[in-house]
Amino acid sequence: MTTAKDIMHTGAQWIPAHETLDRAAQMMRDHKVGALPVSANGEQDRMVGIITDRDIVIKCVASGHDPSKVTAGELCDGTPRWIESTADVGAVLGEMQSHRIRRLPVIEDKKLIGMISEADLARHLSDEQVADWAEMVYAGT
Question: What's the CA gap between 7 and 116, in Å, rounded?
Fold first, then answer.
């Protein structure tokens, strides 16, 4: 059985909720990622959301806000989604499809150990699995 841990990429980084969006953008650049899980202030093990590079552009910059003044926590909305490292690929795909998300943090012993992205799915799954996932996430069927 292929698990979330088998297909994730390691090295996912948290950003604390109190950090500003310009700092988040710098971290994304430095780590070559497009999303960061946001941790509760002072609690590295409690995720309050995820911010993406697109969130920063659309919800902050394009709305006329200053990314050096808006925090990661202010940008988070909704219920954070994640998956246990032992979950099978079917559960990973189901979670991502049902919530129409493109990135999924992987948790083990209540700690962030990695992230699953579209690229990870493309590398590890069959063309049919990826096509089915893409249809559900992008078409919303």
Answer: 7
Walk across the sheet containing 35-40 and list its strands. 15-16, 35-40, 43-52
Q: Phi then psi for 88, rounded to 5 degrees?
A: -80, 165
Would you tell me how many other CB atoms lie within 10 Å of the CB of residue 100? 11
97 touches 137 (CB < 8 A): yes
Looking up tokens 């590398």 gives: 123
**CA 35 vs CA 53, 76, 104, 126: distances in Å:** 6, 12, 10, 24
Amino acid at 92: V
Question: Would you write out the chain's pLDDT as a tens digit for each of its 141 residues?
Answer: 889 999 999 988 889 999 999 999 999 999 998 999 998 866 666 788 999 999 999 999 999 999 999 999 999 877 889 999 999 999 999 999 899 888 999 999 888 899 999 889 989 888 888 888 888 888 754
At position 130, the amino acid (one-letter code) is V
